[in-house]
Predict the structure.
Amino acid sequence: MDKKSSLAALAALGQETRLDVFRLLVRSGAEGLPAGEIARQLGTVQNTTSAHLKVLDHAGLIRAERDGRTIRYVADMTGFRDLLAYLMEDCCNGRPEMCRPVINAVACDC
């Protein structure tokens, strides 16, 4: 991940509703949720939710997956790990292996 991509991801998460959407999708796991269900659970308007989903998708933090006629949104844990790795690459006085446990902790099969 580069500086421009990390800024896009941080900006996407820096808005309250988008952070709520991302956290909801992390909780939902690999199955994800359709946009309508995300809006219902968060009590937001569906078209506004779609705009937030688009920002998160462009930032590489979520992805859309077609499930028949439905589009489900899933947290992109690879994108999230890339953001964490970028933020932590210079940690511990140039010894990134010290931060490896944090990065490994967010590794999952989702």
About this structure: Residues 3-76 form a domain with the Arc Repressor Mutant, subunit A fold (CATH 1.10.10.10).
